Amino acid sequence: MLYKQPLHNLRAKIEEFWQPKRLWRRVIALISCPIVTLWAWIAFSQQPVTLNLLMTTPDAQPWKQGSIADFERKHPNIRINLIEGPNAANLVEDLYTASFLLGDSPYDMVNMDVVWTSKFAAAGWLLDISNRIAPEELAAFSPRDIEAGKYAGKLYRIPIRSDVGMLYYREDLLSAAGIKPPATFADLIAASQNLQRSGKVSWGYVWQGRQYEGLVAMFVEVLQGFGGFWVKPDTLEVGLDRPETLRAIAFLRDTIQMGVSPPGVTTYQEEETRRLFQSGRVAFLRSWPYAWPLANQPDSPIKGKIAIKPMVGTLEQNGGACLGGWGLGIAKSSKHPEEAWEAIRYFTSPDVQKQLILQAGYVPSRKALFADPEIVAKYPHYPKLLEVSQNAVLRPPIAQYAQVSDILQRYLSAALTNRLPPDRAMQAAASETRRLLSVKG
């Protein structure tokens, strides 16, 4: 009796299981379970991939006004999550750096200023994209912009827009005075003094002299014009204590001491110099292309009265144009590198770059766009801008760029504000830079 009841129950359960109606329901359930799972997997796999991209708020606006929507319409399997960062580029760099150091960066594409590439690539944060684009495709871009996207012979960044320093001048005033646009530093000072003596302008020449990255960008142009160099990226040779560097500093100091530049120029950044030039009180300005559309606004006192040219040099050496600009790379930690590359190809394509140029006045990184009829109709100075860009000078593309820039900023500012004699300042800067790079230049 002890075993009969359990056996009876077991027999009843077996008979119940094998009843035709119940058996069919169970078979259907067993079959449908993996089918449901498969359909769920297919549905999940067809969800759009989201790519995260961080950039400064001002740069983000033109992208939001059409480029991203157009991309998503043509690529329904990919979405772009554009994250607006601070207005200052160095703060955006800090956000990228912090996320990579933490080891779980949320970013898929990396929007890089021209001087970030070497640092990010050397740290192992970027994907090598050398084999993803053919040489003939790269040839459509400005060579300097492509060079700025390389580190140790490998490509990590495709330029989406360029930027170059240039010399603005009051074409109307020079023409009326019978003065040719200056070709040398001596010409620049002479023309400035001539226009100042005639009462046409208060100041001859304004430039960015505050202790920040803009000071370095301005200085590499003057340094190039005197035949000097900062750091040679292939050998890490340092040239800050060479005679050419001291002559470049002497020129900048002379502009202040001779009254060609205002005493406060050593505190100026781009906007202070642009506003002063745009007020009509200055003959010459060193700045970036962004100043052109602002200076030609309907209410600008100098609308239609300005022109541009490459930075002046010496009789023996042409001046330089510091290369700026932005480009896109792929984060090595991205889980969607193929989709990220698809997005980069789209955003750096001729049509999309043209759209951004017409929208926001960006400088092309593709050579053909400088002469595009629609672009030239809106920005007639772009063919001349191409000439300026051909004199582009790169800040040293080395992994320690941020540190060597900080060294130069500190000692150059000290030399320009008379806190240190220029020779002592540059000896100290060269020595500190060499120690950092662990080489003798």
Biggest pleated-sheet summary? 4 strands, mixed
Poorly predicted sequence stretches spanning 5 or more consecutive residues: 1-7, 35-44
Overall mean pLDDT score?
A: 90
As a percent range, the share of strand residues is 5-15%
Can you describe this structure?
The chain has helices at about 5-15, 20-45, 55-75, 90-100, 115-120, 135-140, 145, 170-175, 185-195, 215-225, 245-255, 270-280, 290-295, 335-345, 350-360, 375-380, 380-390, 400-415, 420-435; strands at about 50-55, 80-85, 110-115, 150, 155, 160-165, 165-170, 205, 280-285, 305-310, 320-330, 390-395. The protein is an alpha/beta fold. It has two domains: about 50-165 and about 325-385, D-Maltodextrin-Binding Protein, domain 2 (3-Layer(aba) Sandwich); about 165-320 and about 395-435, D-Maltodextrin-Binding Protein, domain 2, CATH 3.40.190.10. The strands form four sheets. Strands 3, 6, 11 and 12 form a four-stranded mixed β-sheet that branches.
Descriptive terms for the model:
alpha/beta; D-Maltodextrin-Binding Protein, domain 2; 19 helices; 441 residues; disordered N terminus; four-stranded mixed sheet
Give a quick summary of the entry.
By secondary structure, this protein is of the alpha/beta class. 49% of the residues lie in helices and 14% in strands.
